[in-house]
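To: structure subgroup
Subject: Chain for Friday's discussion

All,

I'm putting the inputs and outputs inline so they're searchable in the archive.
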Amino acid sequence: MKKSDDYYGIPIATTQVGDRWKWQVTLPVGATITSNKVYDSASKALTEGREWINIETALQALNACLSELYKEGVIHRSEYCNLMDSSIKTTRRR
């Protein structure tokens, strides 16, 4: 059974692939992103969709903060790049 959820105003739905499930997030700009991974249940797919939103939101916030620090000359480009790369590798390693 297909499930859907509204996570902080961002719709998440599940889509069935054979006997497994993927999450599908519709962004405020209208674009839809579907998971590459498949999950054993629709509930698990929704949970992972929420986690994807959390990670992407955190990365965007970090990027905004580091970009501002770089523009103000507080950090160098290499520091900005290293911090973003490290954060991306850490969060996407799951």
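Points worth raising on Friday:
The first helix runs from residue 42 to 71.
The CA atoms of residues 7 and 47 lie 10 Å apart.

D.
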